[in-house]
Amino acid sequence: MEALRAGRVRTLRVGPRSDRRVADAIALARTAGVTIERTDAGSLDRLARGGVHQGLAADVDAPRDVDIDELVAAAAPARPLLVVLDGVEDPHNVGAILRSVDAAGGHGVVRQARHAASLDGIVAKASAGAVASVPIATVVNIARALDELKEAGVWTVGLAADAADPYDAIDLTLSTALVLGAEGTGLRRLVRERCDRLAAIPMRGRVDSLNVSVAAGVILFEAARQRRRGPGV
Q1: Which residues pair with 83 in a beta bridge?
Q2: In Å, how far from its chain's centre is CA 163?
Q3: Residue 128 burial (CB < 10 Å; 0-12/13-18/19+)?
Q4: Which CATH number belongs to the domain containing residue 200 in this structure?
Q5: Is the domain of 93 the same as that of 187?
Q6: Of the four, 40, 129, 177, 196, which is 20 to 30 A from 146 by CA?
Q7: How far apart (Å, rounded) are the C-alpha atoms in residues 201 and 190?
Q8: pTM passes above 0.70
Q9: Positive or negative, the Cα torsion across 217, 59, 16, 121?
């Protein structure tokens, strides 16, 4: 549905299932002038490659890639709130992070071209459609991208379990890029060194870390809380 609203669907394929959500998708596709093809359940299963398709499949244009400057400029007049993914490859995590960026009012994501999850299939589904609306910049080098963000006036805050400062003690009302490392390994050394500041999410139980997509949601909504209340809070 989000891909249809974003004008990214070329062809909508509809199986024999009939319910309100399928009817709404068909109506939206007709309004947008999208080609609609009827198909049988087996063909739809094959198109979805075993994924849970809920009666629909679509040929969708890839999200338009933007550069760092576009990402920052698109946030105006607000101060940018961005997420940088350093080696986060799991498609479920990438999709969930995109969903949290959209839900918290973030302005975009920076990811590396190599070792990155494809932005279709699992990522699109896990993002609940946010992949169609969250701007994404794909870069060759994350450390260099942090330098570009700094040049654009964006403060870079890396999440690290051993950081001295708790995440909610940092002013996130400034133009901010939140830098997240991969599960298990965390931020790579060069990326960590490029961050203006490091922040930790204190753990009170027996586990010593959060899933990266959960951590992203925690700090994004802390940023959203601070921004609702104003600078310096």
Answers
A1: 109, 178
A2: 24
A3: middle
A4: 3.40.1280.10
A5: yes
A6: 129
A7: 21
A8: yes
A9: negative
